[in-house]
Amino acid sequence: MFITFEGGEGSGKTTLIANIKRILFEKGFDCITTREPGGSFVAEAIRTVVLDPIYKGVSKYTEALLYAASRAQHLDDVIIPALKENKIVICDRFLDSSLAYQAYGRDLGIDFVLAVNTYALKYIPDLTFYIDIAPEIGLERIKTRSKKDRLDNEANTFHTKVREGYLKLVDLYTERIIKIDGKLPIVEIEEIIMKKLEEKLWN
After folding, report:
1. 3-state secondary structure labels for all residues of the chain
2. Angle in degrees, CA 138, 144, 147, rounded to 5
3. Choice among 24-28, 151-155, 192-196 with the minimum mean pLDDT
4. pLDDT tens, 54-88?
5. Is the Cβ–Cβ distance between 11 and 134 less than 8 Å?
6. What is the structure's pLDDT at 79?
7. Is the pLDDT of residue 17 over 90?
8. Radius of gyration (C-alpha) of the chain in whole angstroms
9. Of the candidates 18, 12, 48, 47, which has an alpha carbon nearest to the alpha carbon of residue 31?
10. CA angle 121, 117, 62 (to 5 degrees)
């Protein structure tokens, strides 16, 4: 089973993923966690180029292509092998991030982003949890981070467009994407996630 978590900066995905992995392990499931961009040696190298603020002047088209390249490598190195071993794969971001951030946030459009991600389209997640939170709240949560990446440093208007993109994706992929209020206590969010996972895993 392939599960992804999506959301803007400060949505709490990383903490939720760690907790859900622990719960699944306790229930006897074999699962791995990974992330995008990155997740494997080469994919992490691409992550550095696409997110490190020292690389100034990365065009929006180059950015989208780098994300797609990192994703293809990540699929071959980590996701596909784990799925073939019947493991549960929990990934922090996947194709929906490119749609929200590049198609909507960068105004590249869905068609362009899907075109450069044709390989990833063969491996659409079984279930996606989108943690929805207003950009101003999420950015406030991360303001004490010691190191911020290029996306963290974007203007609020960009993050607002990204959120609008995510909400459109929720409407487009109603069977796959579960929207969860990111302002809820983390325990309540975990309960919602586990209820949905149990419906998939035990049925």
Report:
1. CEEEEEECCCCCHHHHHHHHHHHHHHCCCCEEEEECCCCCHHHHHHHHHHHCCCCCCCCHHHHHHHHHHHHHHHHHHHHHHHHHCCCEEEEECCHHHHHHHHHHHCCCCHHHHHHCCCCHHHHCCCEEEEEECCHHHHHHHCCCCCCCCCCCCCCHHHHHHHHHHHHHHHHHCCCCEEEEECCCCHHHHHHHHHHHHHHHHCC
2. 100
3. 151-155
4. 888 889 999 999 999 999 999 999 999 999 999 99
5. no
6. 98
7. yes
8. 16
9. 18
10. 165
- Asked if the model's pLDDT at residue 159 lies above 70, the reply is yes
Beta strands 127-132 and 177-181 are parallel
| Cβ contact 102:67 at 8 Å | yes
Q: Where residue 38 falls among pLDDT bands split at 50, 70, 90?
A: very high
